[in-house]
Amino acid sequence: MLVKSVKPEISHILFGDVDFSAFELYSKTTVEMNEDGEEVPVSVPTLYNKDTEMELSEEDYSLISDYLRTMFNIFPKVEKVKGKLTKESVIEEDRINLMNRQKQGDKNDSGLLAMVSSCVNHPGFKYKLSELKDVGIC
Q1: Could you tell me which residues come within 8 angstroms of residue 138 by beta carbon, excluding any fewer than 6 positions away?
Q2: Can you name the residues that pair with 40 across neighbouring β-strands?
Q3: Cα–Cα distances in Å, from 135 out to 10, 14, 39, 64, 124?
Q4: Could you tell me if 27 and 60 lie in one domain?
Q5: Number of domains comprising the chain
Q6: pLDDT tens-place string over residues 13-61
Q7: Which partner for 127 in 18, 105, 121, 131 could form a disulfide, CB atoms 3.0-4.6 Å apart?
Q8: What's the CA dihedral at 102, 106, 107, 111 to 10 degrees?
Q9: How far apart are CA 132 and CA 85, in angstroms?
Q10: What is the rounded CA–CA span in Å between residue 78 and residue 81?
């Protein structure tokens, strides 16, 4: 659902010419073996770009997200709750924390500086600091 909101001017820093906003959600049918050894058709959600004929599966998503989370040291906070009241309490706590961070920080602070800095310091990053200025990132 959110892949449509990723514009090429944002994603080109890490993904080059891949236009995530052109991907559409499709249901791909594959054949898997069940416990009896019979072939069973299984419907798998996948993203597909008609123009470039590029397909992104859940496996691809997992690889990309794990790599980015590791690269930027950003991991989701996993909380398991029981009951509706506890769930609402956890959601409200996260909302309050988000509002506090927004009040404390600059409203124009996007977090891009930390990401670009960690990319430049990563040994596999293809740009040097001087080349990033030519790309238009300051």
Answers
A1: none
A2: 32
A3: 12, 12, 50, 23, 18
A4: yes
A5: 3
A6: 888 888 888 888 888 888 888 888 888 888 888 888 888 889 988 888 8
A7: 131
A8: -90
A9: 48
A10: 10
